[in-house]
Amino acid sequence: MKKLLIIFIAISTLATAQKKDITLDEIWNGTFRTARMNSLNSMNGDFYSLLNFDRNTKSTTVDKYSYASLEKVEKIVDSKDLKEINYFESYDFNNDETKLILGTDSEPIYRHSSFGIFYVYDLASKSLQLIDEEKIQEPTFSPDSKKVAYAKNNNIFIKNLETNEVVQVTSDGKKNEIINGICDWVYEEEFSFVRAFEWSGDSKNIAFLRFDETEVPTFSMDIIGTDLYPTQQVFKYPKAGENNSVVTLNLYNVSAEVTTKINLGAYEYIPRIKWTNNTNLLSVITLNRHQNYLNLFFVDATSFTSKVVLNETDKAYVEIQDNLTFLTDNSFIWTSEKGGFNHIYHYSKEGKLINQVTKGNWEVTNFYGINEKTNTVYYQSVEDGSINRTVYSIKLNGTAKKRLTNASGTNAAAFSKNLNYFINTFSDANTPPVYTLYNGNGNPLKEILNNNVLSKKLANYDIAKKEFFVLNTKNGTFNAWMLKPTNFDTNKKYPMFMTQYSGPGSQSVSNDWNAANDYWYQHLAEKGYIVVCVDGRGTGYKGADFKKITYKELGKFEVEDQIESAIELGKRPYIDSSEIGIWGWSYGGFMSANCLFKGNDVFKMAIAVAPVTSWRFYDSIYTERYMQTPQENASGYDENSPLNFADFLKGDFLLVHGSGDDNVHFQNSMRLTNALIEANKPFDMAIYPDRTHGIYEGKNTRLHLYEKMTRFIEENLIRKTTNTEIN
Q1: Cα 501 from chain centroid?
Q2: H/E/C letters for each residue in 611-663?
Q3: Which of 108, 181, 532, 678 is placed for a possible disulfide with 208 were both Cys, Cβ 3.0 to 4.6 Å?
Q4: CA atoms within 13 A on the CB side of 649
Q5: pTM value?
Q6: Considering the domain boundaries, does residue 524 fall inside one?
Q7: C-beta atoms surrounding 96 within 10 Å
Q8: Among 250, 285, 320, where does a domain finish?
Q9: What pLDDT is attached to residue 5?
Q10: Rounded Cα gap, residues 544 and 339, in angstroms
């Protein structure tokens, strides 16, 4: 028996020894990349289309598939059959799916925007029609498919596809002064849209926004590049408290070629425009500068009059959403957190509340649509726990709620246009994405794609299990997860490395599959670190009160919660409370710097990547939503700025930034650098020339960054190899 035991132990030891550790090179060379479905486009009927690339023929295709069978039923267009272009990168159908706009040679502008060369492809004649010889933005079919509207050089144009005639709608567009039909930088970044023009359903009118940037302060960045002399990127960027673009709503009558400016009263922002199912009625959302007073207008395109049909106010701020959906009778769906949790509401066409569709102390996280034939609403929520996402259906009157996806984890649905089918993407912390076809009743029909190959590959590695738990602190109860080394020994103490983002409404503790950073945390765990993430106050999906407590004081409660969480976790016998570090990126970098400075008796080291160091430097829309202006709330800005606590630094600090960051400007790190120099505090710094906020451009950039951060952690968070520290 003793021999058998020895043999068993030997075999077990050998098996363990054969397990591999995850390397940084593997993380960034794509070794652990998941198999994913291409983004599908729901078509008319029970069909969807995909943009595919054929490696054998090196051609791009748009292919049509059946939801019912998941089989390809038609190749709609193949680039190898086109004489004018060798490939295309994007496509958009017209209403009856007889034509497509194909895009090629695209160039990025900012986070969401780009411009390129575009063609109209006619399925019947299999011919291409060039829209414009120059690069343009956001070409969009008219609903009758006879025209295409687009933006070029800050102006709007309309091309008649039947005559090839081009009409210039606006002529006052000028770089860094006037923009027509395309959002300015801050709208694109913070209201998350680019195209600021919309066709009416009868193709007779175009509603568009005009941005007058003239009085917005200019920001410039040196671009080092590869030439002898650097160049400059110069653009309008409204920082907190500074002038915004003056934005106006206009209606252009296509046949009369006349533009009319619409009066909407007093407002600061127009974050959404959308035509209703009445082709003469445009819906428009306006916000005041504090973003706590929202109006939903209906604008009559014949009389040019406007009427408020819904008003929403909040003691902090009102969130902008994309769920406004008009039913056949022009009643509409609206989501709001006015009751304390984000829920679905049904309003009449006059703006009177018909009923609240969903209710409970949980959040609706996505509205998928409504099947008017059955009066069934489809949505995603956190009813299964705030770290999970589940798909549900419910009747429009709020009855007959049904859970459509059973597994606990993260479920996300892509519905067919008629809502008869959906493709569900499921993952959790232990299961890489699985794609499954369901019908609208929630019956699983067929697995489409899984990641079993990746799971088998990962079986060869030492993988620590992500343990979810609730952390009780004096400040509240917070969602958290922890990774321990796979050879974890309860009799030893381990250094702890904390990760977080912490921004308003964000979530870092979620039950879903690994992102690239999760593999880095596995890499650190196998080096002997306990890695922990805690979502403190201000984060999302636990109700408005939990989220909005940070209003006017960004960086106060969130920092207190990370410090208190570190103290509470440090009481555990296996965590070395003298060896605790923290890191974060962007808002998380703002947090990690503050935690190291203000929590200098708790945190030994920190890494801040692309951090905001004063909210005075960040853009108006985001910052003022949570802080009001610096003129109104100077103490909120200054009492939580790392710049004003640089002399508190005791531990080891690594500051990282890309010099080409158009979002969180390099200025933030430069000002913190000066503050640390003036306080005579030693610190480490890494500058990535011309890299933007994500610091990914160029060969080996991410690998270089993560190798640097890993070395910094190893040098400054000491892993004790004995248990002599335990008393």
Answers
A1: 13
A2: CCCCHHHCEHHHHHHHHCCCCCCHHHHHCCCHHHHHHHCCCEEEEEEECCCCC
A3: 181
A4: 26
A5: 0.94
A6: yes
A7: 11
A8: 320
A9: 41
A10: 9
pLDDT for the residue 13: 46
pLDDT of residue 725: 42
CATH number at residue 596: 3.40.50.1820
| Boundaries of domain holding 621 | 19-29+455-716
> Integer distance in angstroms from the first to the last C-alpha of the chain?
38
Tokens of 150: 């687009």
Q: What are phi and psi of 138, to 5 degrees?
A: 50, 50
Burial 42-65 (b: 16+ CB within 10 A, else e): bbeebbbbebeeeeeeebbbbbbb
**Residue corresponding to tokens 């960034």:** 28
pLDDT of residue 721: 56
Q: What is the DSSP string of 380-413?
A: EE-TT-TT-BEEEEEETTS---EE---SSSEEEE
Q: CB within 8 A of 96, min separation 6: which ones?
A: 44, 145
Pairing outcome for strands 494-499 and 530-535: parallel
Strand runs (DSSP E) across 257-389, as ranges?
A: 258-262, 269-275, 281-287, 293-300, 306-313, 325-326, 332-336, 343-347, 353-356, 364-371, 376-381
Residue 245 located in a structural domain = no
End residue of a domain, out of 298, 320, 342: 320
Tell me if 541 is assigned to some domain.
yes
Averages of pLDDT over runs of 10 residues in the chain (727 residues) are 41 58 96 92 94 86 94 95 92 97 95 96 96 98 98 98 97 98 97 97 98 97 94 96 98 98 98 98 98 98 97 98 97 97 98 98 98 97 98 98 96 96 97 97 96 97 97 97 97 97 98 97 97 98 98 98 98 98 98 98 98 98 98 97 98 98 97 98 98 96 98 92 44
Instruction: Give the count of beta carbons closer than 10 Å to the beta carbon of residue 83.
Output: 7
Question: How many structural domains does the chain have?
Answer: 2
Q: At what angle do helices 587-598 and 557-570 cross, to 10 degrees?
A: 60
Strand partners, 684: 654
437 found inside a domain: no
On whether the CB atoms of residues 635 and 685 are closer than 8 A, the answer is no
User: Residue 58: what pLDDT?
Assistant: 82
Residue 43's closest CA among 123, 159, 112, 113?
123
Going from the C-alpha of 328 to that of each of 27, 343, 346, 349, 433, the distances in angstroms are 49, 22, 13, 10, 36
In sequence order, the 6+-apart residues with CB closer than 8 A to the CB of 601 are 650
**The residue type at 477:** T
CA 525 from centre of chain: 27
pLDDT computed for residue 724 by the predictor: 40
- Ramachandran assignment for 120, one of left (phi > 0), alpha (psi -120 to 50 degrees), beta (any other): beta
Count how many Cα atoms sit within 13 Å of the Cα of residue 46 in the half-sphere of its side chain.
13
HEC states along 419-448? CCEEEEEEEECCEEEEEEEEECCCCEEEEE
Candidates 69, 79, 80; CA nearest to 100 is: 79
In Å, what is the CA distance from 373 to each residue of 112, 328, 377, 395, 418?
35, 11, 11, 11, 10
Return d(Cα 22, Cα 27) in angstroms, integer: 7
State how far Cα 361 lies from the chain centre. Answer: 24
* Residue 688 vs residues 202, 665, 700: alpha-carbon distances, Å: 50, 13, 12
